[in-house]
Design goal:
The protein has a five-stranded antiparallel beta sheet with strand order 1-2-3-4-5, covered by helices on one side. It is of the alpha+beta class and 70 residues long. Strand 1 and strand 2 form a beta hairpin. It has two helices and five strands, in the order E-E-E-E-E-H-H.
Length: 70
């Protein structure tokens, strides 16, 4: 999903969008759009529960971003 020039990927397993251009995350609204009023940097997520809740596919997306492969 593209939004304002940003590449957004929905991490369905945790109900969160990841902007792979800047590492910001946004909670998904009920209608599956990103809640742009609540940005949070991926690098600041310290909740093991959030990371452990990622599906294998979503974990791969996050790992690719963190390793600079996106």
């Amino acid at each position: 999903m593209k939004n304002k020039g940003n590449k957004m990927i929905l991490l369905e397993s945790v109900g969160t969008y990841l902007d792979i251009n800047n590492g910001m995350t946004y909670p998904a609204n009920v209608n599956n759009t990103p809640d742009m009023s609540n940005p949070y940097p991926l690098s600041d997520i310290e909740q093991d529960e959030w990371m452990l809740s990622l599906s294998e596919e979503d974990f791969d997306v996050v790992a690719r971003y963190l390793s600079g492969l996106n």
